[in-house]
Amino acid sequence: MNLYNLLTFLPTFIICIATCMTLYLAEKRLKSNREMDFSRPLYQNYLLSELPNALTEYEIGQYSKLSVETFSTKLKHFKKDIRYFQYAHNKIYQDVSNSIACIDRILSQEPGSKSIGKTSSEISDLLHKIYKAFLFDLPDDHIDSYFRLK
């Protein structure tokens, strides 16, 4: 290979590498934006309002059948809406799904079998696990910075 061929090949090779890196970074950014689009309604609707409100209604209603059904229905809707994470981040989906199943199991127990405070604290702990899964387990997208309360 002579010097002329080397000097023409080297810039072409560098341009190809730069193009590949640009495409890779654009795809990564697109995936992060797509996850953001899927996560935003989960945060705004479920994690910031519906699930905490359902827990409050459950506690205020003193574990009435209506409050249990309402809370359970909201949990099922939430689980249905996080299906994207089953394929994109299976670990997050499994953690959240297990927490939802535990909450549903607690809700299905008889109200008199445990003390009211202990049941509420168990449900609150499981809800915190769900929050942590979304805030800290999503890889390198800094999603928590988008949802700071102002």
TrEMBL record:
The chain crosses the membrane at residues 6-26. Keywords: Membrane, Transmembrane, Transmembrane helix. The keyword Transmembrane applies. It comes from the Bacteria. This is Uncharacterized protein.
